[in-house]
Structures are given as C-alpha cells and as structure tokens.
Amino acid sequence: MVHHSLGANPWGLSLHIPILLCMQVIFIILFGLFTRYDPDEGYRNQYDLGHGTGSLEHGHQQIINNYPMFQDVHVMIFIGFGFLMTFLKKYGLSAVSLNMMISALCIQWTILVSGFLHPHYDTCEEEGGLNKRSAGGEEKALYNTNCYPNWPWININLSTLLNADFATATVLITFGVVLGTTSPLQLIIMAIIEIVLFNINEVIGRTYLGAVDAGDTIFVHLFGAYFGLALSRVLYDESTTTSTKAGASRTSDLFSMIGTVFLWMYWPSFNGGAAAKGDAQLRAVINTYISLCAGCTAAFTVSAFVNPQRKFCMEHIQNATLAGGVAIGATADMMVTPVGAMVTGTIAGAWSTIGYEHISPYLVRKFKITDTCGVNNLHGMPAIFGGLLSVFMAAIATKDQYDQYNIDGDDPAKSSLQEIFPQSKRDWGEDGWSPGKQAGAQMAAMVVTLVIAVVGGLLTGKLLKIAAQHQMTYKKGQTIVHLALNIGNVMTPNHNLPKESFFDDDAYFYKEEEEEEEMSHTNGLNNKGFLP
Fold first, then answer.
1. Residue 160 pairs with which residues in a beta bridge?
2. Which residue among 12, 253, 306, 413 is least enclosed by CB atoms within 10 Å?
3. What's the confidence (pLDDT) of residue 490?
C-alpha cells in the first residue's frame, strides 16, 4: 500500500468544516422550535380525515400510498444523481460523496424553508375544559390537549419528505454544471441560496400564477439547469476547458451507467409521486415510462449516427437516454396519450444527444459557459420543450378529453379536468378558468422561473467567486481570526480555485492508496465541451 498524503489543507480550503457545523447547529435549533410530526398522521388520534378513521388507519394508508414512490425518488437522489456524476476519472469519490453531503444539507434546509412559507397554525377552542385544534384553518376543531394558536408549526409527513427530495434534485442539477470546478464551501453556499430561491419561485408559479407541473419540469429541471449555467458563466476559468483530468475512463463510465440505470428505472416515480392519486398518477407513470423508452431508443440511434465511426458514445448513453423523463414531466398527468408520450420522448432523446455533440462546445467557445455534466442538454433544453408542451396541452384541454368516461364530470369535486387544472385555487377573473388562461399561466411560470434562475445564478456566482477569493487569501497556518482582520484584501484576486484542484479528488478527499493511473479519454466527438 502506498500512503498518499499531501499534508493538511490550509484553513482557507477548509472553511466548509466550521460552516457545516454551524449550519447543523442552526438546523437543530430551528427543528426544535418549529417542527413536529403532522398531527393527522404522526400522533395517535381518532380524526376522521378521509383516509380512514384515526391515525392508525390514516398513517398506514399514507405509508401504503406514498412511501414506495418516496423511496424511489430517494434512491434517485442519492444513487442515481450521485453515480451519474462519477464519469470523471479522477473525481468519482468527490462526485458521489459531495452529492450525499449536499443532499443531506438540502433536505433539512428545504423542510425549514418550505415550512416557513407554508406554516400551520392551530385554531383552538375551549370545550368542557379541553382544547381542540383546527389544523390549517379547518372548520371542525380537533381534539388537542396542548393547542398553541399563534405558533407557526412545520408539520412533517411523507409529503414533506418527498417535496424535500424534489427541491434537493434542483440543487443536484446545478451541481452537475459546476462539477469538479467548485469547493465544498462554494457548494454549501450555493445550496443554501438556491433552496430559498427555488421555494420562492415555486410559490409564485403554483400559488400566484396557477401553473401546474406534476413532474417538476419547470420548477426543478428548468430552474436548476439555468441557475447553474448562469452561475458557471460567472465562475468561468479557462483552465477548466483544457484540464486533462476532465476526461473519463472505462471504469468511471461504467460507474456512471449505474446512476443512469437507477434514474431511468425510477423516473416514473419522480414524475408521478406528486400527481393526484388514482387515474392522474397512473397516467403520469405510463406517460413517463413510454417517453423514457422512446427517448432511450432515440438517444442510441442519434449517438451512433453522429459518430463518424457509427459507434455509440458513452456520454450520450449516460445522459440523453434520460431526456424523455424530463420532457414529459410537466404534462405527465395530462391527456398526452401514449403516442404523444412516445413522440415527446423521441424528440427529447434526439435533441439532447445533438446538444451534447454540438451545443455544449458552442456554449464554451461563444459564451464561456462550462457545463461539466451537460446539464443544459439533459435538463435545460428538454425542460424548455416540456414546458412549451404543457402550454400546448393546457390550451387544448377540454372537459370531453378529461371526463369522457366520468358520469360525475359536472361535479367540480369529481371532475378530472378540475383535478389536473385546479380552477378553484385562484381568481381567474370575470369569466373564470379557460384553457387559454391556463396556457398563459404555464408560459408565465416558465418566464418567471428563467428570470429568477438566471438572475439568482449570476448573483450567487458573484458571491461564490468572493468566497473562493476568500479561501485563496489563506496561507498555511493562518487562522480564521487572521482572515477576518484581512477581509479587505480578498477582493483583488481574479481567480476561482487552484488550477490543480479542478476535477481532482485529492483536493478534499484523503486516500490511503494511490490508484494505478489509467489512460483517460474524452467522451463525444467534440470532447464534452472542455477540450477545444
């Protein structure tokens, strides 16, 4: 065994240690003050809430209905995304490990941020000396011996955990853009800011604009991709485009395919997990499955077609085969029809493959935007396509489409059309809801999402650049106090990270054994947009 150690990192490159500690302490305090199990499911009760009488039946039904899909999405977050990003030969340990660190951080932070944006207040009533509560403002007060009407509770249930995973996916998409070019400190700052902006954007899009997005094509994929691309533009360093460490190897490509296969298998749960239970959720699963199959076939076909040797390219196979799941997300629960889902997947898979071959290098040459994982091709462009598809599907939505077999279609509470497009949740004006207004809401949500993502990404990139300059001012042996006293000197350098740290595990991961060097290669005809 060869002992591999380059000595301790200076504190400038280790600021993520105290930051992580401080964040976890803050989380513990906030969780202690504001969070609780959802009283409907997490405490023993006898409430009649429509999913069985009492918490025994209600909680059991929630486990049966929601836990399988939640677990699928959870696997996507930690194994799918983590291993997908291990394609870099010398950055595999960092990719899968930092993916886990960021995910754990984001899940906790999302529960808090989303909870503060959607607090639960108990409505208390005195009856025979006992307190009752009305969760979320319900008319019927429910039994509660400790009712606090003025405290903003964050109720945690399976839906809370699923939503936290969705928000985490947004940050991991952005992480893919800057994979190998950012420090742990920068990733922590990025995650904290992006989770806040993501939740604000989702509230605007869903609550105020009235947009629908079952598979989060708009709110997760579109936002995460263009937040990351804007951030990457600010952090651009020419040395990342010429680094030989940006290549892949047969082994790293194989590990990356593990992530691809897990994401591909579980993507129907991602798109269907938040869909309305019953026929809508079933449509989401079917549409996603068909779109994934079609996109996979298209990606393989186009990959071999654009290759002069007519051979498959692993970069395309690892990523573009998933594009169908992204594109169909926003319309997954709509009446796309099976053939519509197939066409959607075919277009997305082909377009994504072409993006990896031609658009990624173009972004580097013309706009100085590096995209390590080709996020624009897998998430960005398919999300634009999927968002526009949701505009079209909303514009042509009719009662005949959604309630053709529904004898109770005229009942708003039982109408499939109103279930997919919740018309009663906002004021649609004098004439009420219409397909045209819903289409406008979908387009408005896309525009707002892009604006918040790009502006937020640019500003966050500036902050991350300052953080990097902060780190670079440290010399070995300096203390945090010394840095604080010299904070005025951190603005002058114009660099991001040490060049030797790009795409290399050695920068932040201790290894007991030096692996045998293996000749790396660059994926794709145009070298992934890195090597000009």
1. none
2. 413
3. 38
